[in-house]
Amino acid sequence: MPPFTHLEFHRSGIGLVPQGTGETGTAIYIDLLPGTSKPLRSCTCGASRSKTCEHLKDLSRAVGEVEKSRGGRSWERTFAASLWYRLARLLFEGNAQPSAKVKVQRLRRNVVRVTSPAGAELARYLDKGESQIRFLERTGKVAPGSGVFDRAELLERLALFQATPEERALIKRGMKTQRQTWEESFWHRLAYHCERELEPGETGTFHPAIDQANGAFTLTWKRDAEAVVQVTVPRDRVRAALLLLAEAYPDQEDLVLRPIPLRSIFHASQDTELDLVEVRPVIRALQATGEERFLEMAEVEKFRYGNLIWLQDLGVLAELEREGRERKFKAPVRLTLRRHQVPGFLDEHSQAVGEGVLVLDAPLRERRIWKTLDRIQIAAADPEEALERSWWWLAVEYGFGDQTVSLADILQAKREGHPYLEVPGGWIDLNAAVFRDLEELVDRQPVAESGKRAGRIRLSPSDLLRLQATAGVPVSVVAEARAELLDRILELRPAGPFRRPTGLATEPRPYQKIGIEWLRFLWENRLAGLLCDDMGLGKTLQTAAFLVGLAEEGAAVEPFLVACPTSVLPHWRDQIRRHAPGLRPHVHYGPQRRLPFRLRTGDVLLTSYGVLRRDAEELSAIPFSVVVFDEIQQVKNRQTQAWQAASHLTADLRLGLTGTPIENSLEELKTLFDLVLPGYLGTDAAFLGRYVRPDDGRDREWVEDDRRRELRRVISPFVLRRLKASVLDELPEKIEDVRTCVLSDDQVKLYRDAIAGKGAELARRIEEETDEPLPYIHVFALLNLLKQICDHPALVHGALDRVDEWASGKWDLWKELLGEALDNGQKVVVFTQYLGMVALMERHVRTLGVGCVSLTGATANRGEIVDRFNRDPACRVFIGSLKAGGTGIDLVGGSVVIHYDRWWNAAREDQATDRVYRLGQKRAVQVFKLVTEGTLEEKISALIDRKRKMMESVVQEDDPKLAKIFSRDELLEMLRGV
Ligand SMILES: [Zn+2]
């Protein structure tokens, strides 16, 4: 299309610029007047009314020429599709710049400058030709009377006539549509002018440029290398503008965005001494060569255009990578860290470092924060230092990677409250789990400050073991001096292996030897312990073997003390007599008790917790080598006098025995440890806070689990527990044990009365040695009465519901054994020959809240009962009368058998035992036979053993003539009093 410089276009309207001077009429033609279906012709001169207006005639001609030259294409559409239009539109978004408000200045002959009301440069018009005049006319900034036509006014008139009814309505209310605002903007006017004047086909191109002084981004349209128009692109429009132009000029190099990945990150760098670390935002540029460059954010800010950054020395615009997700690491613009703040900062932002958001300078990058350790080593010890005061001065070092740090330095730093300790190559996190348990050492301040022991630390064997347990890494001894000894402690080994003392009659089993060696280890290192083997594994034997060894070697010169429940006193005495005849047991019990005048090496004082409590003062005055607390869970309550008395005893070694797992109640565990190894588990408050009710805001289940494991490790050197199942191979399949007990005062009285009454008369008749047959029926009845007295006075009184009114030694022992077996998770089978006892026992088991079945001659559904015991995990006790339950049934669900009373016939007992100990039984069966000391039970027991063979073959059961089997002397012996 020819220039038509005398015409102006707006939407579908055309206006005529008057030719020549003095002309006043400006004619317009609008193809279709909005709101009507008609065109509009109008002129401002007076002649237009009389339709003789030359202006309109000229315009009609021009319109015809325009239509002819455009070939039916409308100006409006062509313009809207033009590059100028799209570029202007892009610059207009968010930066409208109304045409009426911009400032247009002619600086020099060939430079027209357009600035915003705020003074920012928007564009320059640099054409020297006539188009510059028209640019000025179209931007409407001509002084009146300058002889220059106001094309802007003509364009505004065209716009006004073409306003739609809606637009008119808005204008009336002082508003505008987006379209109107756009059309009235300087950008629209600029685009219009350029599209009109700078025709396609000319050799015009766009060139981006950046002002080195202020970073302003401009696009210049050049014609044959001569600048014609230059626009300043707002920073946030640069990218869109370049994309638009690159599409139009795909071959033009300087319009292309370079694919250099840029990332906005933070950079931490330090001065050489690491005294100050500076963290500041930077841009990382990764070039195609793989080379990384860091650009200071402050410096690139001037050349930053939204996500684009001008890489000055490369001469390219590169684009920042978008951040995929919200960053966790948010640093202020700039941050300076002091030396002590550095590890905390790095620790906190380790993830940002890992993700490359925080970049560390080389020396900083190589520094580590250690939270775990590889090893602990004991580097030095004094060769001459003996374990006299239960501790040594040791140089202990913690190893991390290829370096070590002394425990003394760690403790020092912790005491001063530092969260990190600086070491070559990094820092150690002093709050890491491996150092948690050092608090106790920190409080004690056991570090030597000066002298030849400077830097060494005073540690007891238990400190050392705790260190090893909590660190969870091996402790090795690299010190030459005392290495053997220290190694032994860390391995819980005694000086030598177990050798059977001559005073030990029984050869211990392999696992028992391990137990004895462990006890020996505790002794040698002035430690203490809890032996918690399952019931039936021989805790008593291991203890007796350990004690007799000490006495024999002269390692322990003071006597020993065993405190236990009354019911097991006879058991201790019997066990020592039987298995460790090298020891001399003294039972210190009963109203007549008196301490031996002088206790010697090898003497074992046996006493009950009751007596321990009553004779506390007297007993605490005696120095013991070893004090044993059997069934130590009986003194689990610190408020009791028994606990107090126990804790006041003087001993080199305190040993607790129990078959009950002690870790179930942590408070109890603490009390027991306080008794045998005072101070080891720290204060109650610290213990509670750490293990029982941890309150440090972390996940409760995790804490409990984690802390439970930690506690288990901490106590592990001092607790030995073997389960039956784990030493099954070493156990005989059936362990038989006769447990003795003593008559209570109630029983003694009944027993004496019976002997003094009927007993005396019968004894007299037996002694007479007449030819008359012995009154066997009466003898049998009396023996039966005596047996019932031994079982429980309630049987004799026929008052089963008043069981607590009388005491019974056997009843107490039975309850003890039953409780231990149940605690151990075993199922128990009990046999008695008295129905009354079946009832008493059943009632007792139910009060324990334990499931129980019983079987007597009156039971109808035997099969069901047996089945329930064998299969129901909740049914844990079977009580049977010997007659009904002793034959024909299968009780393999049980693994502990208690014969409450002795039958005359060993075969009958064995038969009953075999209900449990039989094919299908997968566990070792433990059999207890209860015998009351000094009564006919003891004599029967001895007789049965002696005449076992004969009785098995000859004696008919339930036969009063059974008594015939006994000689006169034997009968007389049985009828003797207690
Ligand atoms: Zn006219």
What does this entry look like structurally?
The protein is an alpha/beta fold. 37% of the residues lie in helices and 22% in strands. Strands 11, 12, 13, 14, 15, 16, 17 and 18 form an eight-stranded mixed beta sheet that branches. Helix 3 runs antiparallel to helix 9, helix 4 (131-138) runs antiparallel to helix 8 and helix 20 (539-553) packs across helix 21 (569-579). The longest helix is centred in the last third of the chain and has 23 residues, at 745-767. The structure holds zinc ion. Zinc ion binds at residues 25, 27, 43, 45, 47-48, 53, 55-56.
Topology record:
Elements: E1 7-10, E2 13-16, E3 27-30, E4 40-43, H1 54-70, H2 75-80, H3 83-92, E5 103-108, E6 111-115, E7 121-125, H4 131-138, H5 151-161, H6 165-172, H7 178-183, H8 186-197, E8 204-210, E9 217-223, E10 226-233, H9 238-248, E11 258-270, E12 276-286, E13 292-296, H10 297-300, E14 304-305, E15 308-311, E16 316-320, E17 335-338, H11 342-348, H12 350-355, E18 358-360, H13 362-365, E19 368-370, E20 375-381, E21 392-400, E22 403-406, H14 407-415, E23 420-423, E24 426-429, H15 433-436, H16 439-444, E25 457-459, H17 461-471, E26 475-477, H18 483-490, H19 510-524, E27 529-531, H20 539-553, E28 560-564, H21 569-579, E29 584-588, E30 603-608, H22 609-614, H23 616-620, E31 623-629, H24 641-647, E32 650-657, H25 666-676, H26 684-692, H27 700-715, E33 719-720, E34 734-741, H28 745-767, H29 776-791, H30 793-797, H31 809-823, E35 828-832, H32 835-847, E36 851-855, H33 862-871, E37 875-881, H34 882-885, E38 896-899, H35 906-913, E39 925-932, H36 936-946, H37 948-954, H38 968-974
Parallel strand pairs: 11-16, 11-18, 19-24, 20-26, 27-32, 27-33, 28-30, 28-31, 29-30, 31-32, 34-39, 35-37, 35-38, 36-37, 38-39
Antiparallel strand pairs: 1-2, 2-3, 3-4, 5-6, 6-7, 7-10, 8-9, 9-10, 11-12, 12-13, 12-17, 14-15, 15-16, 20-21, 21-22, 21-25, 23-24
Helix pairs in contact: 3-8, 3-9, 4-8, 17-27, 19-20, 20-21, 28-29
The structure holds zinc ion (ZN).
